[in-house]
Amino acid sequence: MLSINEYEKQQLRAVCGQLLWVSTQTRPDIAYTTCFASNCVNQGTIADLKMVNKAVKLLKKEPLTLKFRKLCFAESLIVIFYDASFGNLKDGSSQGGFIIFLVSSSGKCCPITWQSRKIRRVCKSTLAAESWAMIEAVESGELVKTQFCEVTQTQELDVVVLTDCKSLHDTLHSSKNVDDKGLRIPIACLRQRVRDKEMKVHWISTKIQLADCFTKAGAPNAPLREVLCTGQFSHELYKVVFNKEMN
What we know:
This protein has eight helices and five strands, in the order αααβββαβααβαα. The protein is α/β, with parallel strands linked by helices. It has helices spanning 6-25, 31-38, 46-61, 126-152, 166-172, 184-195, 222-230, 235-242, and strands spanning 77-85, 95-103, 109-118, 158-163, 200-203.
């Protein structure tokens, strides 16, 4: 790969800053590209420049409108989609991402916050990357729940976490220790939250995992865009979250 010169690095850094602002405000669908590009500025290549230029063209070609529906807070849940990608960044680091929705019993939803960035821990396996990404997503969800209850003066909302990592899902619903000793404490923390009913963890297929496009190049973002544009969960998502068919 051809490396870029200092001037091109400055240009790449500037555009990454602009994309970062846009992706955190109204365009979660470009969160992966923004995170990946931001982590490769110092080792940037011509391919990275092309990737960023492609993201800019996408922004102009495919506008995105976020729809915020009127919800009944008393019947709502906090739903967290999260995902991780092991060792996908240029320096060998792993990437994690999540998006948090407030969802009513009718399936109407509002996006609250989202994020895609390098996992700050050293991950030695896919299970480790998924575990640390879930912890960060859950902590953000708990902050949203606390702030929401303080503002609305309502009872605490239930939290539902959706993962497409079957091994982590099964681990959290088991009492068996994981082989990686460095994961035993964070796994124990997540298990305690599940046991104390502070959150529910459900497994979903990757094809309906809305956070999949936050951590993988080429992952389809159409499911995420559809939910953001319509403010409505699909029948398949609704069934997983509420364990019943949509009316």
